[in-house]
Amino acid sequence: MNKQKTVLDIQNMYANGDKITMLTAYDYPFARLMDQQGVDMILVGDSVGCVVAGYDNTLPVTMEDILYHTRAVVRGTQQALVVADMPFLSYQIDEREACLNAGRLIKNGGAHAVKLEGGTNMAATIAAIVNMDIPVVGHIGLTPQSIHRMGGYKVQGRRDKQAQQLLADAKAVEQAGAFALVLEGIPADLARQITAALSIPTIGIGAGVNCSGQVLVIHDILGLCEKYSPKFVKVYANLAPVIGAAIGEYLSEVRSGVFPSEEHSFK
Ligand code: KIV
Known about the structure:
Order of helices and strands: HEHEHHEHEHEHHEHEEHH
Number of strands: 8
Mean pLDDT: 97
CATH class of the largest domain: Alpha Beta
Largest sheet: 8 strands, parallel, barrel
Helix content: 40-55%
Strand order of the largest sheet: 1-2-3-4-5-6-7-8
Number of domains: 2
Bound molecules: 3-methyl-2-oxobutanoic acid
Shape: globular
Strand content: 5-15%
Distance between the termini: 40 Å
Radius of gyration: 20 Å
Number of helices: 11
């Protein structure tokens, strides 16, 4: 059995120049499968709201949702570092509430670290959580909880001023004590510059190859999100038709009386 990874292992990987792998998971079976494949970090993302609960965006996701899914993921994990996402309104009001909610994700959820969205504006909050010895992953660029400010899911940092702001945000998150930073939906060259300017690993999603690691949403790479697939997603297995066909076969076998056969019945 592989030993449980810690923040120190992630820091060592970064120091050695090893690419860091991260995937989202929301339940026990997927966590087990990716843990067995050796994924470095599992993110219990608030993307659960879109890919599991069917909301249009991540804003309705609650602390209770993330706690429930984090517990399931932790039970399926033996070696990966589990990062729980802080949902909208769980950390933006004030530092005290942010610390309390981060603590709940560790104490009641079993997560090893938390992630929150924001740069300079969230630096004090990140520092307060880190000060409680809770490891934090930052997240800047296309931050889905800011959908209404951004006017949709749009690539961020294409203009010079915005790029400068993102660089300042990245440095503020590092300075606040985050041990890693997710860069989402920004030009690859800007991600390269930010990565070069930091001494913590960057984890890219739609941010090109020059990040210290990559994260994707598990339902996206398995072809289970037919509603919306961003350009940065690579579909490694198209499971929707496979699952659809299996369900269709079950329905027709029940209707025709083929299932259950003797093999699946008790004497
Ligand atoms: O919620 C999520 O899945 C995320 C990743 C896309 C980084 O925040």
